[in-house]
């Protein structure tokens, strides 16, 4: 019987630079001899991809967004995450439930208790072994997004106060779960942030 794999998530406001470091972390895990499954949310399955388009492109109440995200998450956990972990692979996921607390609760004002109930229904007992939270001020994040030249989704188009609320919600989660959530200063160059990620990874998985 194979040893259960590790579940690692990346979090941060849009433009924090987390997605650009996924390859680095996957490489670090593979260098330790682990098979790695890289995935993302909302998405990760064909059903999840459809829900992703709905959530990112269509306006809806915060509760409707959360329900749609958790519908996608349910398929993602059942079809991708749990089978990979059970097979001994490490799963590296770009966003997970911390994002819902940050965006729908922190950013949009949804009651935290509602997300807690959805979390208990969809993935009871499943939490990341480690979460790397890329933290940067919204002004820096917005400048990075502007430099990309890609079409912004509805969350990326939100005003700076929204992104500040999201950031503060993330930091509150990090204070609540300090052993799981490792905050990484995402300011500075990509190389600087990469070195900080490597240092945190080495502490969590020596």
Secondary structure elements and pairings:
Blueprint: E1 7-12, H1 22-31, E2 36-40, H2 46-57, H3 62-86, E3 90-94, H4 97-107, H5 112-122, E4 130-135, H6 138-148, H7 160-176, E5 181-185, H8 190-204
* Largest β-sheet summary: 5 strands, parallel
Shape designation: globular
In total, the number of domains comes to: 1
Give the spatial strand order of the biggest sheet: 2-3-1-4-5
SSE succession: EHEHHEHHEHHEH
Tell me which CATH architecture applies here. 3-Layer(aba) Sandwich
What is the level 1 CATH name? Alpha Beta
Show unreliable segments. Answer: none
Strand count: 5
Task: Determine Rg (CA atoms, Å).
Answer: 16 Å
Q: Which structural class best describes the helix and strand composition?
A: alpha/beta
Overview of the structural elements:
With 206 residues, this protein is α/β, with parallel strands linked by helices. The chain has one domain (7-204): P-loop containing nucleotide triphosphate hydrolases (Rossmann fold, 3-Layer(aba) Sandwich), CATH 3.40.50.300. The chain has eight helices and five strands, in the order E-H-E-H-H-E-H-H-E-H-H-E-H. It has a five-stranded parallel beta sheet with strand order 2-3-1-4-5, sandwiched between helices. The two termini are 24 Å apart. The mean pLDDT is 92.
Quick structural summary:
The chain is built from 8 helices and 5 strands, in the order βαβααβααβααβα.
């Amino acid at each position: 019987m194979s040893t259960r794999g590790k579940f690692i998530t990346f979090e941060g406001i849009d433009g924090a630079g987390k997605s650009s470091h996924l390859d680095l972390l996957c490489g670090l895990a593979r260098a330790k001899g682990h098979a790695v499954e890289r995935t993302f949310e909302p998405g990760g399955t064909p059903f999840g991809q459809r829900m992703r388009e709905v959530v990112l492109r269509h306006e809806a109440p915060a509760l409707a967004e959360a329900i749609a995200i958790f519908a996608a998450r349910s398929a993602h956990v059942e079809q991708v995450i749990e089978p990979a972990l059970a097979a001994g692979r490490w799963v590296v996921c770009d966003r997970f439930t911390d994002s819902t607390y940050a965006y729908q609760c922190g950013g949009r004002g949804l009651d935290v208790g509602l997300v807690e109930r959805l979390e208990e229904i969809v993935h009871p007992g499943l939490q990341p072994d480690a979460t790397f939270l890329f933290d940067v001020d919204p002004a820096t994040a917005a400048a990075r997004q502007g430099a990309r030249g890609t079409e912004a989704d509805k969350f990326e188009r939100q005003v700076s106060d929204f992104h500040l609320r999201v950031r503060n919600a993330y930091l509150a989660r990090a204070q609540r779960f300090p052993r799981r959530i490792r905050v990484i200063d995402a300011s500075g160059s990509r190389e600087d942030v990469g070195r900080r990620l490597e240092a945190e990874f080495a502490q969590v998985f020596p």
